[in-house]
Amino acid sequence: MRYARIAVAGQPVWGRVGERDIELLSGSPLTGTPDVVGTVPADGAHWLPPVVPPVFYAVGLNYPRHIAHAGATTPARPEVGYRANNALTGHRSPIVKPADVEGRFEAEPELVAVIGRTLRHATREEARDAVFGWTIGNDVSARTWQHQDRTFWRSKNSDTFKPMGPWIETDVDALAQTTTLRVNGETRAAFATGDMVFDPFAYIVAITRYLTMHPGDVLWMGAEAVCAIAPGDTVDIEIGGIGVLSNPVHPEGNPS
Amino acid sequence: MRYARIAVAGQPVWGRVGERDIELLSGSPLTGTPDVVGTVPADGAHWLPPVVPPVFYAVGLNYPRHIAHAGATTPARPEVGYRANNALTGHRSPIVKPADVEGRFEAEPELVAVIGRTLRHATREEARDAVFGWTIGNDVSARTWQHQDRTFWRSKNSDTFKPMGPWIETDVDALAQTTTLRVNGETRAAFATGDMVFDPFAYIVAITRYLTMHPGDVLWMGAEAVCAIAPGDTVDIEIGGIGVLSNPVHPEGNPS
Q1: Among A71-75, A194-198, A231-235, B162-166, where is mean pLDDT lowest?
Q2: In this predicted model, what pLDDT tens digit does every residue of A80-119 receive, in sequence order?
Q3: How close are the terminal C-alpha atoms of chain A, in Å?
Q4: Which element (helix H / strand E) includes A11?
Q5: How many angstroms separate the Cα of B68 from the Cα of each of A59, A148, B61, B148, B225?
Q6: Buried residues in A15-54 as b, exposed as e (16+ CB within 10 A)
Q7: Which residues of A lie closer than 8 Å to B, measured between beta carbons?
Q8: Where does A33-188 have alpha helices with state H?
Q9: Contact at 8 Å (CB) between A169 and A134?
Q10: How far apart are CA A158 and CA A84, in angstroms?
């Protein structure tokens, strides 16, 4: 199943995405079994981030080639960081580059695990069972800020820097797929989605030793490759079996 | 006014706190003007965190004496970090010390600004107007983890490490108060709440240059002084004009 959130008359509504239509749901599939209350065409839908997480977890260095490229040390333990909900935006909505961003402005294509259960002290098997489904994230990063600031507050959490979607796919072997990053239709990177230092289940086991995870929490799994993006570009991230997250890049102040 | 969230029959309910009673409200005062739908005695109430924020902002080094004590450099700009909602707990609920925490385990008494409006590109005056009210936070920290981990994920975000409450006070000159930290009734620190490098309004102006803040977001303002806490202790943080946030410390595995 593919579950999405779309805007209907300005309000967020959950939907089940089919080939041509989206069945509108009476509530969240993360916390119950909602009824179908209507149908809209998928074409032209206003896609929202498929979930607004109670906690937004993000893994940093998790792909061997990215770690080597960054000149960093391979983590010995799964350690997680955080991103902020204000930065989320949906499929097809613009990534807005702030006017005063200088230097490298980059896309990072990431697999995202969406948690469907409350869990603490999870075993690896419980961690597997707790993943409701998978979506795609773009961890847009302004590198000069990332290096000069004490935290990632604006380098990775400015408004629109966290596109997520287009939907949550519940039936996919996400770690057996390929992640492809395209800019204006041209492939800029492709890597084995599952070639991680620690997989999502290892992270969930580690996190829940001390922290309770809740339905709707998201865990962004890091990227192997990044690429530069600029206003005027369209950035597509495809993960096999899930779909394509596509976002145009706009300059700040451009209302279109 | 004092607004709180309490558990009634296991469900979170907003309330307006009086001398002896809590008036139960039909909804959140952050997003509307709720009706009074009942009354319960304040004595024995089950206090929840007064808000579960969309984004949980936390200021690090913000008091000159704390910065000197930490051997750190005074920040030249207001830069904010994040904490995670799983760690929140309410007034009188236990702080649970994980069994494998070693070394310094400390309380940090903090003023908390609760945002009441959606704002972006705020002026200082708009920032002032956007603060709905003030509460108290305890930024409980496990220092060995804080120093050895790449992020603050478990050192500051383990379950129960972020007591907040007891309520949101809307009518107080919060920066003109004194913050007092007591362990088992004995004063361990007292400092001028407003003696900050950057005040809350400066932070809100800086944050909203790039990030949209929303009703319910919280901004923890840092601490001047910290003190050790241990299972068996009761930690009280008082800020004049707001109230007292009190939490016992339990060892992990103690169900009481």
Answers
A1: A71-75
A2: 999 999 999 999 999 999 999 999 999 999 999 999 999 9
A3: 33
A4: strand A11-17
A5: 32, 22, 10, 21, 11
A6: bbbeeebbbbbeeebbeeebeeeeebebeebebbbbbebb
A7: 52, 54-55, 60, 75, 79-87, 98, 120, 149-151, 153-154, 157-159, 207, 209-214
A8: 64-69, 124-130, 143-148
A9: yes
A10: 9
Q: In CATH terms, are B1-47 and B49-251 the same topology?
A: no
Q: Which of B84, B90, B94 is nearest to B15 (CA)?
A: B90
Q: SS3 for A228?
A: strand
- CATH class of residue range B49-251: alpha beta
DSSP state of A202: H
| Partner-chain contact A79 B207, CB within 8 Å | no
- For the segment A206-227, what is each residue's pLDDT rounded down to a tens digit? 999 999 999 999 999 999 999 9
- Closest residue to A150, CB basis, from B55, B79, B151: B79
**Strand order through the sheet with A186-192:** A95-97, A243-251, A234-239, A178-183, A186-192
Chain A residues within an 8 Å CB radius of B85? 54-55
Partners of A178 in beta bridges: A192
Mean pLDDT of A70-89: 94
Residues paired with residue A136 on neighbouring β-strands, in sequence order: A111, A165
Round to whole Å and give the CA distance between B160 and B138: 10
Q: What is the CATH number of domain B1-47?
A: 2.30.30
| Of residues B79, B153, B159, nearest to A81 (C-beta) | B153
Q: Measured between alpha carbons, how far is B7 from A210 in angstroms, rounded to an integer?
A: 24
A1-48 is a CATH 1.10.10.60 domain: no
Best of A51, A57, A82 to mutate (most B CBs within 10 Å, chain B): A82
Domain definitions of chain A by residue range? 1-48, 49-251
| Sole residue written with tokens 């097809």 | A92
Q: What is the CA radius of gyration of chain A?
A: 17
Please, what sign has the CA dihedral across residues A215, A32, A139, A253? negative
Angle at alpha carbon of residue A191, lines to A247 and A92, rounded to 5°: 10
Q: What is the ipTM of this complex?
A: 0.95
